[in-house]
Sequence to fold (702 residues):
Amino acid sequence: MPQGRRFRTEGRRGVVNAEHSVHGGAAAGTAGTGLDRARAVLWLVAAVLAVRQAAAVLRQPPGERLTDLGTWIGDNGVLHVTGSLYDTGQFTGTPFAGLVLKPLARSAERSLGIAWTFGTLLLVVALGLVVARALPGRVSRRTGLLAAPVAISLLMLSLPVRNSFYLGQTSIIPVLLVLLGCFVVRGERSSGVLIGVGAALQPAVLLFAPLLWLTGRKKAAVTTAGTFAGATALAWAAMPADSWTYWVHHVAGAGLGERPDNLANQSLHGALLRIGLEGPLEVALFVVLAAVVIALGLRRAVRYARDGQLLLAVALTGCVAVAVSPTAWQHQLLWILLALVGRVGTRAGDRLVWPAVVVLLMTLPGKMMLPNMAPLHAIRENVPLIAALAAACAVPFLTRTSPYFERPVPTEYARPVPARWSRVPLAPFWRRLLSRPNLLLELLVIRVGYSAYSHIRLAATGGRTAAEEHGRQIISIERALGIDIEHWVNHAVVNAKWAESFFNFYYTSFHFVVPLSILAVLYVRRPADYRWARSSLGFATVLALIGFWFYPLAPPRLMPGLGFIDTVHGPQDLANPDYGAMTAVTNQYAAMPSLHFGWSLWCGVVIVILAPKLWMKLLGLLHPLFTVCAIVATANHWVLDAVGGAAVVGTGFALTYVLAGRRELLPELRSSGDGVRAETLAEADPFPEGKRATGGESVPAG
Fold:
């Protein structure tokens, strides 16, 4: 079979498999009912996200929506300014884009952007449908039915698509043209025409011509280059001055629009400028790095295209284009999201790591992925670029010839000890694993989870009046119970300077260190217990956020007229509702429940349950004891706040028990050459003097 025909056959294999899986599995009646329901729910989610995205744009005033579209339809836009497209300093597209998009811009002007917004929605839906039909490898019926709504939902949530909606950009069009050319149209010439038009709109797309040539589709490659040249020549003939400005004066648009060292420019050129390089040295280094990335990226793309993973090859080529373009703004980074179709890892437990990393990178800002620490700023500023480079040049995607492509190493699940109540666990699918979870994914989940927690905590202000009223309620309850000891303890500690210094240090130093240390030890030494402990801590934190939101509470130090002394933060201006710069750092009224005490109590409970020696258990109990003294002595919490912290932690452990079952697991059953033998994990316990029953029956995944 000729190489070009083989390439087309393998490239469309995902489409054929998807269609076959949908039609061939129609006989499965009982399973189909649940699958149809799941598909209906996913389509509903996709529709809700689409409506929400359109509403977010259209509810803006006409002068504030689709701001980049204003370069066309604004008072000083391209449609209203005689002369060059680039006279306004805002238009950054190719002259061909200016030539062919003028009718669309005029339509948007007449409809105040409504038609443009719904047109963008249709483009995103079409893109999701094509991606879903082009998945590589054998596609099950379930995947074939659910892939389209999942793909559309991910696209709607991604930063590039959201950015395109908000700004009124056209960056989705070149991506869709490439995918249509590779997976939908028949004939190499038709494919080349579509990809060539995409390159005329966005020159970096021209990198797909070498991919086509090297994979045997030489007619498509030649047609792509010819279409690009013809479209560019047409624009040059119609607008020679604009073409000279774009292609010669600005060297393919470099330098148009915002400054290229802007954080939004996620290309190698922008990254080099941000680290301080400039002039001929920067240009030379950029050219060298771009050549290396093109060579490595295209070589890998060709390899996966010949392997039958054409969608992955297209995504990798797009990632190369992102990295080597002079400017790659956020709305042009959609290629990175498509790279999640690649399969990475030989174990079933690792298969979701790469898709999860890509989805998080493409849906959340960089500041949520990494903490705000000076050594990490260079990474935070270039997260999408790093992801594009990693996908194009480094991530070890599996080939279809690998024995692990379709059958990864199965995950070993543990069998829980029967609970007292027959309905426990309520979530039987929530099975505990014997192996450690993927470290990268765990770190990302912890970081993103804490970032979301911080944002919600900061947003749950509730207002000063309500917070002080709740503070007076707490005082009344404590007086009725005879536990209103905060004022006495606070002043007693202030009069003993050594105690004040100790509790200030304890309050500010151990809140995060101790829980993270315990999680780290459990991850390394007792992975099954790590999952149990992590889940209970997560539930407790979510419950605390509910308390912050619905019951804003002023801590003792922020209650006017009561004479409390803030030993940690210093005197506060109680006449200022914002309490100075501290409000920008954290929510001052997130006092009930106290997670300072709640997390410390979680640490104490975990240590008492899991520590093998008595002195370790006693040492673990000191942490919540010192913490409750610190939060009261420093006037940061009421006694009832600590009670609330204990309540959410207790509820967190209870939810983990009800949903996942008891912490203890049955002895592990492993198959050996002579049959099945029982082996308690106590034999391999890193704490031989302690009691442990954390094994489980080896059950194949699924």
Remarks:
- Residues 29-58 form the longest helix (30 residues).
- The first strand starts at residue 668 and ends at 672.
- The beta strands are 668-672, 675-679.
- The radius of gyration is 30 Å.
